[in-house]
Structure formats: C-alpha cells, structure tokens
Amino acid sequence: MRILVTNDDGINAPGLKVLEHIAEAVAGTGGEVWVVAPAFEQSGVAHCISYTHPMMIAELGPRRWAAEGSPADCVLAAIHDVMPQRPDLVLSGVNRGNNSGENALYSGTLGAAMEGALQGVRSIALSQFYGPGNAGLEDPFEAARNFGAGLVRKLIDDAPWDTGDYGLFYNVNFPPVPAAEVKGRAAVRQGFRPETGFSVEPHLSPSGRRFLWITGAKQAVHTGRGSDVSANLDGYISVTPMRADLTAHESLARVAEALR
C-alpha cells in the first residue's frame, strides 16, 4: 500500500512521527510511506489552499518533503507533483489536541483529509485529545500510538468508502487517557460545545500597537450522547464519517416551498 502522511502541526511535530509509525505498520512489507507536510505549523487553517501565491517545496530525504503551504496544499503537491504514483490512502495527523466537535471546522488536519477525499483518495484524519489524563504522560500520544494502526486497518477493510463527488472521509479522535484506559471505539456524530467558541483578546505591544490574540475555550464539555466529544471524554476513540458537501439536505424541501 502507498500511503501519504501529512499534518497541520508541521514537519517536525511529534504527532507526525507517531503517524509515520502507524502508516508504516499499515503499509506493510513492500509498501511505501510518503511524507509531505507543512514546513511550519498550520493549525486552524481548515481547508485553506494557497490559491493566490506559490509555495516553496523542498526534499528533506527519501520520500520526505516540506512545503511552505497548508495541509491541503501538501496533499495537492504530493498527488500532482511529488509522488510518481497516486497514494492509496491519505493519513493526516496525529494532531496535538482534539478535532472533535466544532474544532473540526477549523482543523487543518481535517482540511488535508477533505482534500484527499476530493481528489478521490481514501482519507483519514487522526487527532489526540489532550487532558489531565494524558498531558503529563511521557508519551501523550500513547492512545493514538497503540490503537492507530489497528483502527486504520479496520476502517480500510470494513468501513464504507465511496467515490462520489463528495466522497467519505473519516475523523478519528483518540481519548485523553492512557492507552490502558481506552474503553473501545465508537461511531458517532460531530458534537457542538455550546457557548465555548473561539474569541479574541486584545493586547498592546511595547510600541503601543494594538494586537488581537485568538482565544480558545474549555474542551472538556460534553456534547450529548452519541457525539464525538462525549465519547472521547468517556474514554472511547471516536470515529465520525464526514463529507465536504455543505448542503443542509434536510432543509431543501422547506426552502423550495418558501420560494414558491
């Protein structure tokens, strides 16, 4: 199997090394693992592409490249320039922090998986939830490291995949606990943390200029039964099937009626 690995935390991120190990285990003997990742951290860029300016790309070693662009840029670069043959699978992550709930909308990790799906390649985004249960571990990615390869194989072999215009991709989040405390895996919907969205905090520089810092919010907020955040907080690996199609299909009939 030929696997493309990327992320949004950057080419030197520890989570990328974890994902490389996962990819190598999944690719197997005779397989290929290619790394095309951002030269610098690109967290929060979602599905952004460098449409209005070129990006520099550099070969760092065999099958290892860094691009001065977004995670989606890296997928485009790999498929259409770097790799001599298309990948069979795109793996993005392992993100340092969760991409459950509304975080998924901002995530460059998911942006890469989304672009992979739009390019017709099976794609999975993987993220490691951080919390008191694992942040202090010698290896905070322990849950992802121990369960990642098995879960990816399971999705490849048994989960649905389609090749429609907006093909399925998967959002996987590992819970904020040691590997020994992972309770299992669950297919769940995307949750929403109420009243916990991003905001801004103003600061003045020593020269008197005004700057705004983006601020986050509490992450350990349950989002209801059957949702990704709650599954993670309860110790389960969450698996959420997604599409890039943003149409609110359940509202189409009502909108059509309103337009008569």
TrEMBL record:
An MF annotation (GO) of this entry: nucleotide binding
Record family assignment: Belongs to the SurE nucleotidase family.
Record-listed a divalent metal cation binding positions: 8-9, 43, 95
InterPro entries, per the entry: SurE (IPR030048), SurE-like_Pase/nucleotidase (IPR002828), SurE-like_sf (IPR036523)
Enzyme class: hydrolase
Cofactor annotation comment: Binds 1 divalent metal cation per subunit.
EC annotation from Swiss-Prot or TrEMBL: 3.1.3.5
Residue stretches making up the Survival protein SurE-like phosphatase/nucleotidase domain: 3-193
Keyword hit for Metal-binding: yes
Keywords: Cytoplasm, Hydrolase, Metal-binding, Nucleotide-binding
Cofactor: a divalent metal cation
Subcellular location: Cytoplasm
Known role: Nucleotidase that shows phosphatase activity on nucleoside 5'-monophosphates.
Protein's name in the database: 5'-nucleotidase SurE
PANTHER family listed in its UniProt record: 5'-NUCLEOTIDASE SURE, 5'_3'-NUCLEOTIDASE SURE
Any single Gene Ontology cellular-component annotation: cytoplasm
This protein's record includes keyword Magnesium: no
Pfam families named among the record's database cross-references: SurE
Catalysed reactions, semicolon-separated: a ribonucleoside 5'-phosphate + H2O = a ribonucleoside + phosphate
Record lineage: Bacteria, Pseudomonadati, Pseudomonadota, Alphaproteobacteria, Rhodobacterales
